[in-house]
């Protein structure tokens, strides 16, 4: 797409209209994160099957939260990703000669006005971002919850979403990150 105003070009991987439900959006965007995780790729490296970030951007009321978290009838991208990830890990484990086991840890972080807060344990506020020697950024004090099943992870997600409203009054202006670690 080229802007008529300044002549700049913009490239879009996908465009969805109002008739597209979260299932369609997930299949064309976030599903590849699961595929990359199963192949063993770090979800933070840019590349065709290695992209591990879901970002919804837009003005207030444009559907960012709905797309990420959905409803009971139309699950969001995060719930679909968690469910698919557990299904794929179970398949991979069953095919493994040693019945390899995987663990999944979940954290739910909110960043608001440069302050990091643990949404699942809201008493953990103003956590520090630290860089390690491997150029990784970590959040000191952020709790990782080991999840045995998709239901465990989804329960933690619900708890974190509930906690998001309690952390600050300007919750719509905050960035929220669900962090999944597969080992």
Q: Can you tell me about this structure?
A:
By secondary structure, this protein is an alpha+beta fold. The chain is built from five helices and six strands. The strands form two sheets. Strands 1, 2, 5 and 6 form a four-stranded antiparallel sheet that branches. The longest helix is centred in the middle third of the chain and has 19 residues. The protein is globular. It starts with 21 loop residues before the first helix and ends with a strand.
Helicity level: 25-40%
Q: Helical region count?
A: 5
As for the number of domains, it is: 2
- The computed structural class is alpha+beta
Rough outline: globular
Query: Total strand count, please?
Result: 6
Instruction: Assess the beta-strand content as a share of residues.
Output: 15-25%
Q: Could you tell me the radius of gyration in angstroms? A: 18 Å
> For the report, how would you describe the main beta sheet?
4 strands, antiparallel
pLDDT < 50 stretches: 44-51
Q: N- to C-terminal separation?
A: 40 Å
Q: SSE string, helix = H, strand = E? A: HHHHEEEEEHE
Average pLDDT score: 80
Secondary structure: elements and pairs:
Layout (H helix, E strand, L loop, with lengths): L21 H7 L2 H8 L25 H6 L7 H19 L8 E9 L2 E4 L9 E4 L5 E4 L4 E3 L2 H18 L7 E8 L1
Antiparallel strand pairs: 1-2, 1-5, 1-6, 3-4
